[in-house]
Every structure is written in structure tokens, then in C-alpha cells.
């Protein structure tokens, strides 16, 4: 066989086309392997790391990002839709109250989300007023009523109407000092304002204005309020929320703090009209239906339990009482007020064989005797509670304390006032007869009440008796164990209000649709609702047609008249 030369063989090998193709294919495969490895492994790791780093987006970037998102944003129920692009939401950690909000997450802390910081006010705003107690009322020596932590002198149980302990001759305007002394016993006080759910201002606003309502110029009446606001606004705590987490208490009706003009003849001071005060929450025994910065809390009664058993024993006693009167009324007529229905109520009581009347007038009267009043209420199924000189009366709480079902004639006497303390379903514990039924249609109260089935009366009375703990102020020198009194309910409501406000701020909610003139309606909304509409009680709260001011002139006039009638009954 003929052999090929070696040189020829080597030349043929290096020029083999199949070998060249194999080499190029291997090189190409290796290149694509490197390319894919770099894309999926190297770049993939870097992307995952970048996802862990907070990135700040410009508003335009956020807008495009939201447009690409498949999940629609959560709607703010009750608030207008935002059409224009909004700036990015602030990082939650930047809000100065976040530390306070996070305390609620600590389940091992019984005070988490409930801490209260109390301002250490100069004594001129509180204690100095008690030292000058004779100046607190033009007609009444308030010195005895400020004793026993504001409860007043003990009541002797001569007629067996009261319990042997826990009953005091408490003045109806003493809530300022009672509330402040109860706050001293609050179990979740803190000296660290940064963890506070709310901030309490122990200013005796009611005592302050009571000193100067008669015979003093407006400069004198406004002095302490202006001084207080100036003091508060200089404090670092104020700047956290501009005072919207602050609250104070005044044991008087709101009209004493809502002077409309700078006329010397106008009534009260302008505390609640001060810009700073509009941010705070003021707890008063009667609030304005047309304003958002005051909230109604109960008038003090004569009963101030020191322990839970004091309440339980009293409740059981009220359940077992025999009530011989269908209805009763304690009060005086208002002949100078053409809109008052008291005269007609008194006349119906006089004509009825199942009605009891305790007439009040100047001079000696059983209306000034807590024993006589409570004895009548304890013997009645229903207690009539028409308006006094203003919407509300202390008598409403005295009657419920006696287990008597209240009959109201105006929604502003209770239903729109004490929404923190009373059920929104007023039919559970009371009867409502519109004033016009008495004034214009001369409806028989006796016949209306007789139409209520006995079983329904029993359920309503039981509801009233069950409400007693949250309508009384416990003795500030002791502490209830399981029950929540009027103080506890009020403080928790303030905390809830501030907490919800803070959450709204974080989530960017606004109250653009809020109408302050309809404030009374918002308090009646169910949980989660934010918007109000027409209401069956609109006629009761219609503003004067001339549109003047924040409240009608009649409100200030009635406030002034309440002082004149202070010694006549329990208005």
C-alpha cells in the first residue's frame, strides 16, 4: 500500500473543515455560557441586594410606579378622592408621636397606649383658687364644697335614703377639682411626655370664670385663659401636635367660655374661641352642638363610691325598690322664657294622680335637700327632664342614679351631649317626647308613658341601673377595682380621640368635608363612618337665620339666667 508523505499528512490535518467547525461551536457555546452566567447570577444577586436598601423616589417616579401597580390603592372612606398626584408619604419614624403609639404594641405593659402626662402648672392656675374659695361664687360659699377632694361635706343618712358611706353634698360645678384629684390616682401617669397617649392640663377653668362673671370687665375675665395659653405654647410638649393631644376640664356649661364679642355687656370669657384652645379638647358638663373642641361629661351626683361593692350594693337596692309614682318632676317654672315647657309640665303633674311634683322656688325648699330629691326619684318609674336655663340639668344624673328612667324633651339634653357615657340607642334607657308635642299639641305625658309595656319598662330601668358606674365620679382618695367611673370613661375617650387623630395624620387623612356646625351629628356616627347628612333632629339645632356668631344670643342669655336660678333648683 502506498503511504502518503508525513508533511502532506500534517498539512491535510490542519486544514480539516470539520475540526474548525467544532472549535468555533465550542467557542460560541462558552461565550453564551459566560453571558448567561453574568446575567442571571451576577446581576440577579445585585438586584436582590438593591431591594433591601431603602430608596427615595421623586414624586414623578412614585406616580409612574403607582400607575404600573396592579393593586388599587385603599380608599379613605368618607374622604374625597385625590385626583392630583400627592407627595410621598412621610416615613412613619419621622412623626414625633410614634414612640407614644408604639407603647400600645407592648402587650406586657398594662399601661401601653394609656399613659397620661400632666402639666405641672403654676399654682395660680389651680390651687391658688382653692385658697381663695370664697370668691368662687357670688351667692354660694364654695369653701365647704371644695373639701374632701372636691366632694364637699358628707351627707348624713337620717332618712335612710342614702347608703351609710360615699354620699356628699357635692356642688354641681365642682368637676374641675374632682377630676384633677381623680387624675392624681390614675394608674398610668408618666413623667415622659414622649410616651403619653394624651396630655392633661389641670387648669380650673370653671372656677376661674366663676370668679369674674358678674361685675368684672372682659380683660379680667380673659386674663387667666390668655396666660394659660401663653404658658402652654412655650412648652416643648405643645409643639408635638400643636396642642391637639392636650385636654382640660371645666365644670361649667360651654356658653360661659364662648363670648362672641368684645362688648363689656357680653357674657363669659373667650377661652374656647382662642386659636390655641380650638386645638385642645375641653370637657364640660354641657357642650356646644355647633363646635368641635368641647365634649360633654356628666354633672357630679351626690354619690362617690370608694370601692366596687359600694356600687353593687346600691344597684341591687335600686332594683328592689317599690315605685309608686308613674312619673315625677323637680324644678321651677321659667315664666320669662316663652319657649320653656316647664309651666305645662308642672300643670300636668298637678292634675295627675300618678304624678309627683317637687316645686322649687327661692327661699327654703325641699329642692335644696338632696334627701328629698333622691327620695322622690327612688319612688318614681319615670323622671321628667325638660331643659333648664340651658340644654342640660344635673337632675338627669341624680334621677338615673336613683334607677329612674329619664324622659327628655330635647336631644341636646342628653343624646348629643354625653355620647361617651350613654348608649347611642337612647330608647334603651330613656323616653323622648319632643317639646312641640307638649308646647303645641298638649300631649298627655301620663297617657304617653302608660302606653309603654311593663316588660319594656323593666328592661329600660335595668339599663339605667347598669349605667350607674359610668355616670358617677368615684372618691378621688380611693380607687375602684373592676368598674369604670365617669372619669375613666372620659379619659379613655380622650385617648381614643388622640390616637385616631395620630393615625389619620400618618395615613394622610384629611377632614376637608368636615362641617363644624354639624359637630353634634359626628358624635352620633357609627364606627368607621365619616360623613353626615340630614338628620331627624335638625330642627332642634337649626342656627339663627341671621347667621350671627358661633351660638345664638339666647345661649348666652340662658347661661346668665342659670346663675340667677342657681339657688332655685338643680338646673
Automatic annotation (TrEMBL):
Membrane topology value: Single-pass type II membrane protein
Subcellular localization, as worded in the UniProt entry: Golgi apparatus membrane
Top-level taxon in the UniProt lineage: Eukaryota
Transmembrane segments: 21-40
InterPro entries: Exostosin, Exostosin_GT47
One Pfam family it belongs to: Exostosin_GT47
Chain ranges of the Exostosin GT47 domain: 111-448
Compositionally biased region (Basic and acidic residues): 533-548
Region (Disordered): 60-90, 533-571
Key words of the record: Glycosyltransferase, Golgi apparatus, Membrane, Signal-anchor, Transferase, Transmembrane, Transmembrane helix
Principal place of residence: Golgi
GO molecular function annotation: glycosyltransferase activity
Gene Ontology cellular component terms for the protein in this record: Golgi membrane
Entry's family note: Belongs to the glycosyltransferase 47 family.
Protein name: Exostosin GT47 domain-containing protein
Amino acid at each position: 500500500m502506498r503511504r502518503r508523505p508525513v508533511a502532506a499528512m500534517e498539512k491535510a490535518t490542519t486544514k480539516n473543515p470539520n475540526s474548525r467547525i467544532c472549535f468555533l461551536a465550542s467557542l460560541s457555546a462558552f461565550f453564551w455560557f459566560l453571558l448567561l452566567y453574568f446575567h442571571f447570577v451576577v446581576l440577579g444577586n445585585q438586584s436582590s441586594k438593591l431591594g433591601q436598601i431603602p430608596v427615595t423616589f421623586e414624586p414623578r417616579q412614585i406616580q409612574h410606579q403607582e400607575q404600573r401597580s396592579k393593586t388599587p390603592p385603599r380608599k379613605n372612606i368618607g374622604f374625597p378622592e385625590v385626583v392630583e398626584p400627592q407627595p410621598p408619604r412621610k416615613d412613619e419614624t419621622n412623626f414625633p408621636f410614634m414612640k407614644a403609639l408604639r407603647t400600645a404594641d407592648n402587650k406586657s405593659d398594662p399601661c401601653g397606649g394609656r399613659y397620661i402626662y400632666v402639666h405641672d402648672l403654676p399654682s395660680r392656675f389651680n390651687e391658688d383658687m382653692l385658697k381663695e374659695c370664697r370668691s368662687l361664687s357670688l351667692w354660694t360659699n364654695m369653701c365647704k364644697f371644695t373639701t374632701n377632694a372636691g366632694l364637699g361635706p358628707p351627707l348624713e343618712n337620717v332618712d335612710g335614703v342614702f347608703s351609710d358611706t360615699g354620699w356628699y353634698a357635692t356642688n354641681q360645678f365642682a368637676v374641675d377639682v374632682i377630676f384633677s384629684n381623680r387624675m392624681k390616682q390614675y394608674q398610668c401617669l408618666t413623667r415622659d411626655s414622649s410616651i403619653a397617649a394624651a396630655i392633661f392640663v389641670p387648669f380650673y377653668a370653671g372656677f376661674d370664670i366663676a370668679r369674674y362673671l358678674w361685675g368684672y370687665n372682659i380683660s379680667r375675665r380673659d386674663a387667666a385663659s390668655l396666660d394659660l395659653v401663653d404658658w402652654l405654647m412655650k412648652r416643648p410638649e405643645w409643639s408635638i401636635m400643636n396642642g391637639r393631644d392636650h385636654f382640660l376640664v371645666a365644670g361649667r356649661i360651654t356658653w360661659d367660655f364662648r363670648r362672641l364679642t368684645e362688648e363689656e355687656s357680653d357674657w363669659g370669657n373667650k377661652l374656647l374661641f382662642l386659636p390655641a384652645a380650638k386645638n385642645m379638647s375641653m370637657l364640660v358638663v354641657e357642650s356646644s352642638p355647633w363646635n368641635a373642641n368641647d365634649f360633654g361629661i356628666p354633672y357630679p351626683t351626690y354619690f362617690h363610691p370608694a370601692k366596687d361593692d359600694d356600687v353593687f350594693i346600691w344597684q341591687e337596692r335600686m332594683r328592689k325598690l317599690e315605685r309608686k309614682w308613674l312619673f315625677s318632676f323637680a324644678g321651677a317654672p321659667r315664666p320669662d322664657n316663652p319657649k320653656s315647657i316647664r309651666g305645662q309640665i308642672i300643670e300636668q303633674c298637678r292634675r295627675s294622680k300618678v304624678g309627683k311634683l317637687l316645686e322649687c322656688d327661692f327661699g327654703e325648699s325641699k329642692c335644696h335637700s338632696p334627701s328629698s330629691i333622691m327620695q322622690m326619684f327612688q319612688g318614681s318609674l319615670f323622671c321628667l327632664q325638660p331643659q333648664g336655663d340651658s340644654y342640660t340639668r344635673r337632675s338627669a344624673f341624680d334621677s338615673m342614679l336613683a334607677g329612674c328612667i329619664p324622659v327628655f324633651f330635647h336631644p341636646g339634653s342628653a343624646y348629643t351631649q354625653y355620647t361617651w357615657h350613654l348608649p347611642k340607642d337612647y330608647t334603651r334607657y330613656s323616653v323622648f317626647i319632643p317639646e312641640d308635642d307638649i308646647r303645641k299639641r298638649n300631649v298627655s305625658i301620663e297617657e304617653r308613658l302608660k302606653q309603654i309595656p311593663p316588660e319594656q319598662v323593666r328592661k329600660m330601668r335595668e339599663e339605667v341601673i347598669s349605667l350607674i358606674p359610668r355616670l358617677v365620679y368615684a372618691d378621688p382618695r380611693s380607687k375602684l377595682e373592676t368598674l369604670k367611673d365617669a372619669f375613666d370613661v372620659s379619659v379613655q375617650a380622650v385617648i381614643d380621640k388622640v390616637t385616631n387623630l395620630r393615625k389619620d395624620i400618618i395615613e394622610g387623612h384629611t377632614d376637608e368635608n368636615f362641617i363644624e356646625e354639624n359637630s353634634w351629628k359626628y358624635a352620633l356616627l357609627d364606627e368607621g363612618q365619616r360623613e353626615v347628612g340630614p338628620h331627624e333632629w335638625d330642627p332642634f339645632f337649626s342656627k339663627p337665620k341671621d347667621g350671627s356668631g358661633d351660638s345664638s344670643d339666647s345661649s348666652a342669655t340662658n347661661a346668665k339666667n342659670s346663675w340667677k336660678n342657681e339657688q332655685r333648683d338643680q338646673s
